[in-house]
Amino acid sequence: MAAERGYSDIVFEILDKCKSPATTGPIGRNVLHAATILKDKEMIKTILDKMEALMLEADEMGWTPLHHAAHIGYRPAVKMFLELPIGREKAAYKKNKQGNTAFHLAAASTSLNCKVIISEFIKWCPECCELVNEEGRNILHSAVGKKDIYELAMGDILEKNAFSDLLNEKDAKGNTPLHHIAINSFEKRLQNHDLRLGIRINTRSNNEEENSTLHEPDEMQNTNLIVAVLIATVTFTAGFTVPGGFFSEKGPLQGTPILGKSPAFKTFIIMDTLAMVLSSSAVFIHIFMRFTPKVSRLFGYFFTAFVLTTLAMVAMVVAFVTGTYAMLGYSRSLSIVTCVIGLSFFIFFYKVFKKSFEC
Predict the structure, then answer these.
(1) DSSP assignment string, 74-106
(2) Which long-range contacts (CB under 8 A, 24 or more apart) does 283-288 make?
(3) Cβ-proximal residues to 260 (8 Å cutoff; 6+ apart), any chain
């Protein structure tokens, strides 16, 4: 009771006078729990000097003092606990009744100090990175949805070869941290959109298989790869079957494009070549991704491939419009109508991207 109410002098007196003072209080919490929750650095230090074994005692929820310190983001306590062998060798590995270690709670915490708490765990107890809770989730699963914490974990953990496979570890439902990133991103956009309409939504899917299918990163990569291959194939073919055909009569122009001097045709050739190069580059990146040892760089590679494929698609549309315009030179009205219809793609393109960035 003295510790819970912040009477540090009384706590010190009891610890000095009594050989085995009663340490268990309400909800199964001991004096070290109370001092930690109060964020009383001096009291914590004194208790650890006298009875450091209290660090291993859990309350009715299975929370040790280290769990509480990590959850509330109290760095001095976390540092003192982990500096002791009993803290980094035993307390750091204890799980509460939900199967979470103190490290998991730090990653999921909303405290402003959660980043420095994560750094302390990585510094004193790097092996904690591999611990999973009862749902099979590691530190990266817990950090999903908090960009700064996730980036810190990625930088300090994934760069260590010993833990480079954490990004691909699956939880009990078969989801990797990447799966949760994709799911969270989709849910936030859905919530932002539907809340504007006053609709209450339930983002939890009862169909796990459907959820996994919709947000499978591997399927996203495969889709992008297929599109890139199709664009490369179409543009390569178009380069040798040019609009208007070739001169077939014998002479210096035999085999050359009939519309070769048309500005629209020249634009077609340039954009077709650009689309083929961009899409081929995207295909190469997808192939390269299969062999890269740095899993932390996969998202960057995938994003680059996505941008290249998108630009290739734009170039392909421009190539089609200019090629059609070159062939329809005999009918100005028809060529203009065709161009307007073809270029309407960019209106759709703009609308889609605008909606994506609004959420």
Answers:
(1) -HHHHHHHHHSHHHHHTGGG---TTS--HHHHH
(2) 283/225, 283/228, 283/229, 283/232, 286/221, 286/224, 286/225, 286/228
(3) 266
The runs of H, that is alpha helices, within the chain are 8-17, 31-38, 41-51, 65-72, 75-83, 85-89, 102-108, 114-124, 139-143, 147-153, 177-196, 208-214, 217-240, 263-289, 298-327, 332-358
Q: pTM value?
A: 0.45
CA angle 209, 210, 216 (to 5 degrees): 85
Task: Map residue 294 onto helix, strand or coil.
Answer: coil
pLDDT at 25: 66
Q: What is the mean pLDDT of residues 12-35?
A: 66
Domains of the chain with bracketed CATH: 8-172 (1.25.40.20), 180-215 (no CATH), 217-358 (no CATH)
Q: What is the pLDDT of residues 80-136, one digit of tens each?
A: 999 998 888 888 889 898 888 888 888 777 677 777 888 888 788 877 777 787 777
- What is the tens place of the pLDDT at every residue in 229-252? 999 999 898 888 888 777 777 877
